[in-house]
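Holo prediction. Input below; ligand is pantoate.
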Amino acid sequence: MIEFKNSENLNKWSKAQREKHLKIGFVPTMGALHEGHISLIEAAKTENDLVICSIFVNPTQFNEQEDFDKYPITIEKDKDLLFQAGCHVVFIPDVANIYPSSTAFDLEIDLGNIANVLEGAHRPGHFEGVMQVVKRLLEIVEPNVLYLGKKDYQQYLILKKMVSFYQFDIEVKQCPIVREPDGLAMSSRNLRLKPVERNAAVQLSKALFAIQSDQFSSSPKALSEKFTANLNANPLIDVEYLEIVSAESLGKIDDWKDSESAVACIAAKVGSIRLIDNVTIY
Ligand code: PAF
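Structure of the complex:
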């Protein structure tokens, strides 16, 4: 596995591979890798000649300094996991390399509703930061295919729109959520849960799966209110939102018959750790 720290060197290398008509799959991450990330590497490996993974904890997408300061960093373990998974290149830049003072970022893109709801409403500036870093990474890596996980469902919709807005010749693929055996969605933040919080955290996915199987028993609003109240009854859980939305527009669904698709999305603090998850209802 080749390791790059410098964006110009990686860009040169990547251009050379594309000139040889080699297809490049790209998996951007913030490190603290788990099986969810590795599933993206594996998907990229089967569909491309080369796989590049970036590890960069992007400061501009954190709306809380403490969340950024405490973001888990496990670089050596990450490199081992990537090597074992057969990743060809790991890119580990520093902040100055990703954001040299010459890199301007004008957000000319209007994403409409999809950026203003759910995470957009609760984490001001988060998606601007995500778009800023992913645009920059795509310009450096110049991949053929970008791989994203479904756990960050809204991020996937936004980045797909961004790629098309800037007319990048890049296919955006979404891979399924990887879960722990009890159903908790894998997340780098799970590493920060205390044992008692880890036990409580599974209630989030349980609620989403219950909504999935109870669907149509009541209105979307009644279901989300019922499960929000159930979750909040646990003193370790504080639900920020639990919404049933259209899978395309992310608009809230008032009546099941109003939408051709539905996803239940949740964000909740378990102890002090903020987790997100989602389940497709139909
Ligand atoms: O999903 C993530 O880990 C991050 O938002 C991403 C896409 C790597 C950008 O920093």
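The chain has two domains: 2-175, 188-280. That is the main takeaway for now.
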